[in-house]
C-alpha cells in the first residue's frame, strides 16, 4: 500500500508541475459543471414539478447523481483511456510486475483535475439538502449517504466494464458512455420521467435507478417502504460481474505488439 501511495503522490506532483494550468483546468471543470445546474433552474422557472417531483426534490436527485458520478469518475475515469493503454504497451508492463494489475492502471491515471467536478457536486448537494423539503431523520440521512457511495461504485463499475470490453474489441466501446457521462446528464431528473421501459432497463439491466430513483421515493415521502433505502447496496453489486469480466479479459489478453 505504501508503494501505491508513493505512486499516487508522484502522479500528483507531475500534474502540479504547471500549477497555473492545473488550477485553471480545475476551475474550468468547476464552472462548466454549473451549466447543467443553471439549465435545470431555468426549466423550473416555467414549471412547478416534473412527474410529481418538486423543484427542490429534482435538485436533490441531481445532486446525488453528480456527487456519485464525480467520485466514481475521480477513481475510475482513467479507465476511459484503456484502449490507449493497451495500444502503447503500458498494459504489458503492468502484467510483468508483481502487483495487482488494476491498481497499476488506476493510480498512474488518476486525474486530479477532476476535483473541480467533485467540489461543484459538494456545493450543489449542500444547497439541495435543505431546499428539498425532506423531513430529515437518521435513516433518511443514511439513505442519502448510501445513494452517493453506492452510486459512485456503480459509475466506477461502468468505467471498468468499458475497459473490460476493450480486451475483446481493442478499440474503446463508445456506446457504453451512455451509462457514465450520459447517465450524469439524463440522471438530472428521476428516471421515471423517461418512461416505464427506460426505468425497467435502469432497474434490472444497468442498476442506475436502484441508487437514484427508488431511494428518492423514500426520501421525499412518496413511499413509506423503508427497505427502499437499501437498494443502493444491491446496485453496488454490479461491480462484481464487472471485476470478473475484467479478470477474464486479463487472462485472455494478447499483446498488440506495440
Which secondary structure elements does this structure contain, and how are they paired or packed?
Layout: H1 2-15, H2 19-43, E1 49-50, E2 53-54, H3 55-76, H4 82-87, H5 90-95, H6 101-106, H7 115-131, H8 138-169, H9 181-186, H10 196-204, H11 209-219, H12 231-236, H13 239-252
Helix pairs in contact: 2-7, 3-7, 3-8, 8-11, 8-13
Summary of the model, kept short:
By secondary structure, this protein is mainly α. The protein has helices at residues 2-15, 19-43, 55-76, 82-87, 90-95, 101-106, 115-131, 138-169, 181-186, 196-204, 209-219, 231-236, 239-252; strands at residues 49-50, 53-54. The chain starts with a helix and ends in a 6-residue tail after the last helix.
3D structure, described in words:
The chain is mainly α. The protein has one domain (29-252). Helices cover 67% and strands 2% of the residues. The protein contains 13 helices and two strands, in the order H-H-E-E-H-H-H-H-H-H-H-H-H-H-H. It has helices at 2-15, 19-43, 55-76, 82-87, 90-95, 101-106, 115-131, 138-169, 181-186, 196-204, 209-219, 231-236, 239-252, and strands spanning 49-50, 53-54. A two-stranded antiparallel ribbon has the order 1-2. Helix 3 packs antiparallel against helix 7 and helix 8 (138-169) packs antiparallel against helix 11. The longest helix is centred in the middle third of the chain and has 32 residues, at 138-169. The radius of gyration is 19 Å and the shape is globular.
Amino acid at each position: 500500500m505504501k508503494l501505491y501511495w508513493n505512486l499516487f503522490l508522484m502522479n500528483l506532483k507531475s500534474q502540479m508541475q504547471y500549477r497555473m494550468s492545473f488550477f485553471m483546468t480545475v476551475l474550468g471543470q468547476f464552472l462548466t459543471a454549473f451549466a447543467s445546474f443553471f439549465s435545470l433552474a431555468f426549466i423550473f422557472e416555467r414549471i412547478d414539478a416534473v412527474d410529481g417531483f418538486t423543484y427542490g426534490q429534482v435538485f436533490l436527485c441531481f445532486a446525488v447523481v453528480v456527487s456519485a458520478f464525480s467520485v466514481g469518475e475521480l477513481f475510475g475515469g482513467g479507465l476511459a483511456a484503456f484502449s490507449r493503454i493497451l495500444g502503447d504497451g503500458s498494459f504489458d508492463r503492468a502484467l510483468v510486475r508483481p502487483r495487482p494489475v488494476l491498481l497499476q492502471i488506476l493510480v498512474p491515471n488518476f486525474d486530479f483535475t477532476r476535483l473541480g467536478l467533485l467540489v461543484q457536486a459538494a456545493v450543489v448537494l449542500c444547497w439541495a439538502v435543505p431546499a428539498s423539503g425532506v423531513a430529515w431523520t437518521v435513516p433518511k440521512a443514511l439513505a442519502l449517504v448510501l445513494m452517493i457511495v453506492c452510486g459512485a461504485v456503480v459509475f466506477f463499475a461502468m468505467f471498468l466494464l468499458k475497459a473490460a470490453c476493450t480486451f475483446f474489441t481493442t478499440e474503446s466501446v463508445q456506446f457504453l458512455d451512455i451509462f457514465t457521462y450520459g447517465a450524469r446528464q439524463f440522471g438530472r431528473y428521476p428516471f421515471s420521467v423517461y418512461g416505464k421501459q427506460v426505468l425497467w432497463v435502469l432497474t434490472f439491466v444497468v442498476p442506475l435507478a436502484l441508487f437514484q430513483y427508488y431511494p428518492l421515493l423514500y426520501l421525499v415521502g412518496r413511499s413509506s417502504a423503508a427497505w427502499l433505502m437499501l437498494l443502493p447496496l444491491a446496485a453496488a453489486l454490479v461491480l462484481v460481474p464487472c471485476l470478473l469480466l475484467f479478470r477474464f479479459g486479463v487472462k485472455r489478453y494478447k499483446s498488440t505488439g506495440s
